[in-house]
């Protein structure tokens, strides 16, 4: 279970960094924030984030 959670977090974080890079070039920071939240703010992600900060 913990390995699965770690994998989700890592995938999420990499997607965030990639999206941030793309959206920074486009200059669309609002969409960047919304995209990050919708992709990664699942209840599982929030629980893990609270339990052990990255």
Strand content: under 5%
Indicate the overall shape.
elongated
> Could you give the distance between the termini?
17 Å
Largest sheet: none
Radius of gyration, in Å, reads: 12 Å
How many alpha or pi helices?
A: 3
Binned, the helix content reads over 70%
The strand count comes to: 0
SS class: mainly alpha
Average pLDDT score = 63
Q: What is the succession of H and E elements?
A: HHH
Q: Enumerate the spans where pLDDT stays under 50 for 5 or more consecutive residues.
A: none
Folded structure, characterized:
This protein has 54 residues and is mainly alpha-helical. The protein has helices at 2-26, 29-40, 43-51. The radius of gyration is 12 Å and the shape is elongated. The two termini are 17 Å apart. The mean pLDDT is 63.
Any key phrases for this structure?
single chain; 54 residues; mainly alpha; 85% helix
How would you sum up this structure in a few lines?
With 54 residues, this protein is mainly alpha-helical. The protein contains 3 helices and no strands.
Topology:
Elements: H1 2-26, H2 29-40, H3 43-51
């Amino acid at each position: 279970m913990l390995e699965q959670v770690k994998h989700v977090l890592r995938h999420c974080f990499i997607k965030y960094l990639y999206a941030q890079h793309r959206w920074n070039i486009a200059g669309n920071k609002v969409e960047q924030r919304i995209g990050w939240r919708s992709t990664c703010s699942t209840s599982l992600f929030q629980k893990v984030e609270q339990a052990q900060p990255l």
